[in-house]
Amino acid sequence: MIAGRGRQKIRPPRRGVHGEEIDFENTWAIIASAFREIHTKNASKLSYEELYRHAYRIVLKKKGEDLYRRVRDFEHEWLSNEVRGSIQALLTANLLASTQIIGGTTANERRTAGERFMKGLKQAWEDHQVCMAMLADVLMYMDRVYCTDHRRPSIYSTSMVLFRDDILSSVSSEEDSPPILVLLNHVILEQIRMERDGDVIEKALIKSCVYMLEALYDGQIETEGQRLYVTSFEEDFLNSSRDFYRAEAELMLRDSDAGAYCRHTRRRIYEEQDRCRSTLSDTTTPKIEKVVEDELIKNRIHELIEMESGVRFMIDNDRLEELSLIYDLNARVDNKKTELMRAIQKRVVEMGTDVNNAAIAASQVQSALSEGADKGKGAVQEKNLNQQTIAALKWVEDVLQLKDKFDEIWRESFGSDQPLQTALTRSFADFINASTFPRSSEYISLFIDENMKKGIKGKTENEIDLVLEKAIVLLRYVQDKDLFERYYKKHLCRRLLMQKSISNDVEKQMISRMKIELGNNFTMKLEAMFKDMTISEELTSGYKAHVAQLGDPDPKRIELGINVLTSMTWPLESMGSSGDNEEGKKLKCVFPPAIERIKKGFEKYYGEKHSGRTLTWLAAMGSADIKAVFPKVPQKDGSLKERRHELNVSTYGMVILLLFNDLPADQFLTFEEIQARTNIPKSDLIRNLQSLAVASKTRILMKDPMSKDISETDRFSFNEGFQGKFHRIKVGVVTSGNKVESDRERKETEKKNDDSRAFCIEAAVVRIMKQRKELSHQQLVAETLNQLAPQFKPDVSMIKKRVESLIEREYLERIEGASVDSYRYLA
Amino acid sequence: MAKHQTEYVTLVSSDGFEFKVTRSAACVAGAIKRMLDPSSNFKEAVENRCVFENINGVVLEKVCEYLYFNEKHRDSKDVPDPDIPPELCLELLMAADYLDV
């Protein structure tokens, strides 16, 4: 382009490229001597420009190749002759000894020797680096032109390689002593060991040696994995660390407790992280962490947790901090925390089983006692049941306490870890539903009963809430929800009818909570019970108004309060005494005429309102207030006084007492007479007579002979001399409260429960088959289990039986010739 | 060995012309930058004075011009070509190669 301009003349450079010839050897001599100066740190005397110009010329003269080689040779010689010697001078006997594990040298000596060695090496390395940087500057033109053109590595990296070969890989003068590099590794490792043992070491020094190793590469290729640090040092380091920690773990497990072990381990991990940062290289951090984790945690976690002072000990002694440490450590090596989870679960089940056993033991001790005592058997059994009730409440409290404890541990120590919570829940469910302990449903219901009757008295709303919440928490664990429902219904029934419940609001609150937790189905019947109560109230007041309207101001009028209960929703059978089935038919109580009249009146009133409904009178459940006048008889203090008392007795009690109304004062009735005239079931009669004639505070009847037990030949008469402290006297009838069932009762409940389960299972099976038409046995069982899971966990054999029964009744049929057992739905 | 970093450095041509240029401009040229590198501590760095045995005054003046020109337009785009007299072309090219501009 320039030539194209024609007119203008381009002046040739005054000194052409081919101008003056230069003498390569002379020039090299100049350069070489200058290099020597540089190596001896006398650069300030040298003119860069001059050296640069010489190198420039040589390269221009196409002598780059020679120059490159000369420089390399020069460096090689310099390193082998000058530097290596000074390094090897540092290889004292102490240092060599340490590699060959010969005793006799103190740690301190070895350490100083090691430090001196590293210092020398570091110095040599740094000098080399600086000098080579300067050389490379001077030879910049060569690097730029010759090396790029001929694809040679720059003179700087070449010289680094030289350093590796001539110094690090060089073998010291003595025979069979390892290369400098190996020695260096040993020295560093030893220093690290010293630090692990608590000594203070010169971290900066090691760090600079590590820098050196990081800057050098093993082969020609400069990749991350080829760094000398990685290829030569790191592995040694990791191996020796592994050995160290393995030994340490063994020692610690033998000598110290789990808490200390955890703390130590955590400290070790921090230390190693710190060491990587300050002494070694950050790239090693994850690797060494893994080594420590493997050796101190992963391979040991099982032993650690099982230690005498392990998880079990920590749980028992509320070592929250240590548990939290264990959790952290386990989380490090195992996302699922399997070991810890297993240990915790085991402990929960253990402690839960203890609680179960304690409850069982408590009840058994009592029954053993009652067997021992023959006399007054009824009373002892009564007491026994009370004891069992206490045991039941204690069980619930214990379980709740256990739950609180583990909740706290979970919250404080396990960082509210989700999988662990699931595990905990599962364990709780395990022991609460343990087959060896079938009473959990009953106990929980009793617990609620107790609280409804007494526990929540005088508590604030929040506290009540807390109690309800606790009950719900337990309920959540229970598998056989239907059994619970049965008990709850029974207990609720008693509370409602006998007005034992403190607050209707709280009852309703409880039910709505259960509704949230277990669904509509579960609470439907319970709600129906409440509804019946409300309707009954309306009926009572309605009837009262009705009677008033009739205008029959009978002075002897009897007020009637009535509860009309739907027989399907109320567990009435469990309320009645079991004795009345003995003769195979229900006995009807004969009411006195006054009562009978009211009864008829109400039946009429009710019949008008709801046609087609039958009322069955359950005298066993009612109570009556009687105003009684005791005639003037001489009192203990000699005064003659008429006494009026209001007696609150059971309906049966009232019926019995009314018999004596018509009786002359000196007459008596025998047991048989009473039974014949009232038709009260025998067991109920005995109980009522007991409270009327035996209990000292409410002895309204006299019994002949006076004894504690009621026998069929006893005779009863009105106790005219009865004295009461209060105007109003409550005649309690035994077993009116909610208590743990006796064994017989339990068997009955279970039987009833099984019966109702049978219906549930059949219903579920039919529902499933209706939908699926055909299904194999296995699938059917699985689906049935699934459907019934929220209510209870049915026995597989039970399902089988129900299916058989359904086949018999031609709801289903077996599919002939199917490879697996299968059923077909028959519409 | 005073390692004071002056703001200006002196560039000297083979025929004795001296150019005072700012250090930052001078260091645009790779060779000069290394020459003045305080860590290597060559004679030039100590004296803040670089003598170029193979560049004459005319060329060096043009080089200095270019150093400033380059520094000025370092970060901008669409820079106009510097004014280069054709008769100096070859010598300037050689100097540029030498100085690693």
From TrEMBL, chain A:
- InterPro entries hit by this protein: Cullin, Cullin-like_AB, Cullin_homology, Cullin_homology_sf, Cullin_N, Cullin_neddylation_domain, Cullin_repeat-like_dom_sf, WH-like_DNA-bd_sf
Keyword list, A-Z = Isopeptide bond, Ubl conjugation
BP terms from Gene Ontology: ubiquitin-dependent protein catabolic process
Q: What is the lineage of its organism?
A: Eukaryota, Fungi, Dikarya, Ascomycota, Pezizomycotina
Domain (Cullin family profile): residue spans on this chain = 439-693
Which molecular function GO terms apply here?
Answer: ubiquitin protein ligase binding
| Species name | Lepidopterella palustris CBS 459.81
Q: Name one Pfam family in it.
A: Cullin_AB
What family does the entry list? Belongs to the cullin family.
Name of the protein this chain belongs to: Cullin-domain-containing protein
From TrEMBL, chain B:
UniProt source species = Lepidopterella palustris CBS 459.81
Keywords, A to Z, come to:
Nucleus
Supply the Pfam families for this chain.
Skp1_POZ
Its taxonomic path starts at: Eukaryota, Fungi, Dikarya, Ascomycota, Pezizomycotina
State if Nucleus is listed as a keyword.
yes
Query: What is the protein named?
Result: Elongin-C
CDD domains, per the entry: BTB_POZ_EloC (cd18321)
Q: Where is the SKP1 component POZ domain?
A: 8-71
Q: Which domain of life is it from?
A: Eukaryota
Gene Ontology cellular-component annotations = nucleus
Question: Its principal location?
Answer: nucleus
* Family per record: Belongs to the SKP1 family.
* Cellular localisation: Nucleus
Report the protein's function.
Answer: Essential component of the SCF (SKP1-CUL1-F-box protein) E3 ubiquitin ligase complexes, which mediate the ubiquitination and subsequent proteasomal degradation of target proteins. Controls sulfur metabolite repression, probably by mediating the inactivation or degradation of the metR transcription factor.
Which GO annotations describe the biological process of this protein? ubiquitin-dependent protein catabolic process
